[in-house]
Specification:
Blueprint lengths: L8 E5 L6 H15 L6 E5 L5 H7 L6 E4 L16 H7 L3 E4 L2 H6 L4 H14 L2 E6 L3 H6 L2 H13 L11 E4 L13 H19 L1 H6 L1 E5 L7 H5 L6 E4 L6 H11 L3
Parallel strand pairs: 1-2, 1-8, 2-3, 3-4, 4-5, 5-6, 6-7, 7-8
Helix pairs in contact: 1-11, 5-7, 7-8
The protein binds 2-phosphoglycolic acid (PGA).
GO molecular function: triose-phosphate isomerase activity
EC number: 5.3.1.1
Subcellular location: Cytoplasm
Length: 257
């Protein structure tokens, strides 16, 4: 973390978990645990159907609400899809774009990820843009080149003045939901390289201000060490964000003055 230049953001990614009543129970439980974190922004990205309730329920805890995806068009004949504008009107602040599960199961490509980043920014949302390598790619030694390519493709055509709304999440695919976290050194190395890519694209001032998260089996035990790395400005947390105590513990690790 480096709070002098940029925001620390802890974001939960609930994926396809929690019904409305479970969302209510979580909000009730975390309310007393979390307090009002002063030094970091706390976000919960929840399933679409729970968004209106979540915006209301988590207001008291100052937790901002995010969506887990959006479409790249603002409206039209796209059965089953939800636009960034629709999310904005509900009070959503963040939207995860290009999560590896969406790339893997729903054929999202670097091209559609780029279009979604533009749609999110256009609607006034903060995109959390996910990039990450597979185990095969890491073993081939192409991680840095791949991540640089993913970042450049996602940000193509995004002007410098919009970059303060963009969050990047480095999520090695082999670490997601596997319990196999990247070491702090591995995570820091890639997050630093992402900042270098942004510096080359937009200059030092923009690069310094961008929040870069780590995601992939971040939990109450390993969060502090990961967050101690200067280029890791927060986390995108799946499994551990489903448990109020674990999520609170990670927020507390990030909420250091
Ligand atoms: P995990 O998921 O924390 O359960 O590994 C992270 C993510 O997919 O964003």
């Amino acid at each position: 973390m480096n709070r002098r230049y940029r925001k620390t953001i802890i974001a939960g990614n609930w994926k396809m978990n929690k019904t409305l009543s479970e969302t209510r129970a979580f909000a009730e439980e975390i309310k007393d645990m979390l307090g009002r974190p002063k030094w970091c922004e706390v976000v919960l990205c929840v399933p679409y159907v729970n968004i209106p309730a979540a915006v209301r329920l988590f207001k008291e805890s100052r937790i901002a609400i995010g969506a887990e995806n959006c479409h790249y068009e603002s409206h039209g004949a796209y059965t089953g899809e939800v636009s960034a504008e629709m999310l904005k009107e509900l009070g959503v602040k963040y939207v995860i774009i290009g999560h590896s599960e969406r790339r893997q199961y729903y054929n999202e490509t670097d091209f559609t990820v780029n279009k979604k980043v533009h749609a999110a920014l256009e609607a006034g949302l903060h995109p959390i843009v996910c990039v990450g390598e597979s185990l095969e790619q890491r073993e081939l030694g192409v991680t840095m080149e791949l991540i640089a390519y993913q970042v450049k493709a996602a940000l193509a055509g995004v002007p410098a003045d919009k970059m303060r709304h963009v969050v990047i999440a480095y999520e090695p695919i082999w670490a997601i939901g596997t319990g196999k976290t990247a070491t702090a050194e591995q995570a820091a190395e890639v997050c630093e390289s992402i900042r270098v890519v942004i510096r080359k694209l937009y200059g030092a001032r923009v690069a310094r201000a961008v929040t870069i998260q780590y995601g992939g089996s971040m939990n109450a035990k390993n969060a502090a060490e990961l967050l101690a790395q200067p280029d890791i400005d927060g986390g995108l947390i799946g499994g551990a964000s489903l448990k109020p105590a674990d999520f609170t513990s990670i927020v507390n690790d990030a909420n250091q003055e």
